[in-house]
Amino acid sequence: MTxxxxxxxxxxxxxxxxxxxxxxxxxxxxxxxxxxxxGCHSMHNANEWGPLLLGSDPSSVCLNCHSGTGGANxxxxxxxxxxxxxxxxxxxxxxxxxxxxGGESRGESHGHNVVALDFGLTRDQRLVESPGGNYPSExxxxxxCHDPHAKKxxxxxLGALPxxxxxxxxxxxxxxxxxxxxxxxxxxxxEGGSAAVGYRFSYDAPVARQNILGKFGETDESHVDYGxxxxxxxxxxxxxxxxxxxxxxxxxxxxxxxxAMLSIETISMYNAYINTGDLLANGTGTGxxxxxxxxxxxxxxxxxxxxxLDPTSTQGPDANSKVMCLSCHRAHGSxxxxxxxxxxxxxxxxxxxxxxxxxGVSGNDVLYSYYNRDISIEFGPGQGQxxxxxxxx
Length: 393
Hints:
Layout: H1 3-28, H2 58-66, E1 98-100, E2 103-105, E3 207-209, E4 225-228, H3 230-234, H4 239-247, H5 264-272, H6 365-369, H7 375-378, H8 388-391
Antiparallel strand pairs: 1-2, 3-4
């Protein structure tokens, strides 16, 4: 072998090794609640934010690994084209404002405006604090919700047992170990990130499971299967909204949470409904419970046991099921106002914005806004709001 060929082989081996290490890092980085310190921190080079982070701020550190082109197997939550189709959505939409004759949908209204200066994401200029709460907008970051160290019960410093697995996807520990919270969400002892001085959560993290086989993209057949506690957890920052929904009165009246059980009529409608055109004279459709699940209208199964959750199930709701905040909204961001799973302002979803010809539209914005599903073709040009999945047309 010539010196040149040796050099080429060595170079190829080096880059292959880097690739394998990176793949392994993505898949195992959060395992066991330990992680790799040098994945987020530098031992010697401090930045303006403070704790030796490999970024200008906490969210920028997270996006070092969680940005890029989306796809079914991509952990990206911030793409350059709207292709990150995780259950939480894509922060891409925060930088997209759409305009049309007589209307506008501003990027700031499309989701949680996390501050990630290295990636061009800034605070919400409309809201000083969280609606229904008092979490400061200027401090909103990925670690406002996700505990980067995967602690549970305050961590070992407060007497909690060490984690066996992080619980990020709802995976279960073996040998009697302790599992962390779903998606590393902060529990009732969490303080919403160190920048939010004096803030502490009141509700524990929800019970949920996501496909652990690298399937990050959300579809009807691969999605988060929610168990219980999601709305209560949202209430850590949006408490007044949650309270109103429980009381059925006030500024927000749609029920959501552990007490918001789906009625017999709603369960029947959800399971039978296929689209606006598939409703019989008696108000029911031709769908069946076994294939009724629709990614745009998820629900809680009503169980605190993650072993009973199946993120590949297409089974519709039953008497234990409940409506939650994420039945209508995405946690990170969407193409629509209020981080809606669909356009709340469109009478017919085929007329949703962003739409063809809208100002600000580029690339595949229209198709990606509904997670690669063409509403007109799949559901019909007369498809109404997805509220119909529970309430009928």
